[in-house]
What does this fold into?
Amino acid sequence: MREYEEEKRILVTGGAGFLGSHLCDRLLEGGSEVICVDNLFTGSRRNISHLLSHPRFEFMRHDVTFPLYIEVDEIYNLACPASPIHYQHDPVQTTKTSVHGAINMLGLAKRLNAKILQASTSEVYGDPKVHPQSEDYWGHVNPIGYRSCYDEGKRCAETLFFDYHRQHKLNIKVARIFNTYGPRMHPNDGRVVSNFIMQALQGKKITIYGDGLQTRSFCYVDDLLSAMMRLMSSPDDVTGPINIGNPHEFTMLELAELIIDITGSSSELVFKELPSDDPLQRKPNISLAREKLNWEPTIQLRQGLESTITYFDDLLDRNLINA
Ligand SMILES: NC(=O)c1ccc[n+]([C@@H]2O[C@H](COP(=O)([O-])OP(=O)(O)OC[C@H]3O[C@@H](n4cnc5c(N)ncnc54)[C@H](O)[C@@H]3O)[C@@H](O)[C@H]2O)c1
It folds into this structure.
């Protein structure tokens, strides 16, 4: 199966963000023309600065909650703040971004008869009662909590994708992304990988919520993008939802120790109370991705952390942490 679609015009919403900017890189490498749409809420020009003079790249500052009229063959819909501190900053805007953003992008896809992929999330499973989570699990989600603007917004976006598929025969792809990390993550997004790395590099105490025995699975960005691009070029009957993530679990304590080891930091661990609605365990069942996309992650956590740490170290060296 081909990962790259050649000579297509592809829209990436959220293209100046962490995952989106890497996706723009990969699509350009494959020969496509890329239109990156982003309102720069959590994304940055720095993530795409190396692409601005590329002849097949175009950046448009635009908020996906407003309609967009351009001509493209494929749409990757990634626009949405992804970390709790960002998506809880303006929860109403977060829901609008997922829901109105989906309606606007699906409307565009319908008008153009374009293929459209939604970057959904493992958060649609909420605090799951089933482990590991497979795509047929409907989830255990709080509709009125602090995380709901994100979780329910993404669930509603999935509903819209499938209704456009059934009602308008739109060619859709829904990827449920589990925790992903790598260079160009936000250094201050409060997520566990960035938190631990920043604390270790700055010699600060490493904050563990709860007893540190809760587990997470971490997928490196390159692995994730291979799966997303394979999903986009999969046969039309492969709509998803399809889990993309790394099923290998680590406890927060193991992650902290690995980061301390790689950075050679002398940081100590401190334990704090677990925030409300924080799931104790989340792990993807990726059988469907193995079967339909012939994909599984290949990059080991240590290897992925090394390049992420190098990136953060460079930001610190150049004093670009808050830039
Ligand atoms: N990184 C992960 O672990 C992860 C996990 C699950 C799902 N996802 C999903 O993948 C997508 C990308 O996540 P990311 O980690 O790259 O986050 P990110 O915050 O780096 O990227 C999101 C991008 O969307 C842009 N954006 C936000 N609201 C917008 C709006 N209204 N209009 C236009 N642009 C807007 C932001 O400026 C940013 O560039 C998101 O949809 C997220 O929900 C990510």
Remarks:
- The longest strand covers residues 115-121.
- The mean pLDDT is 94.
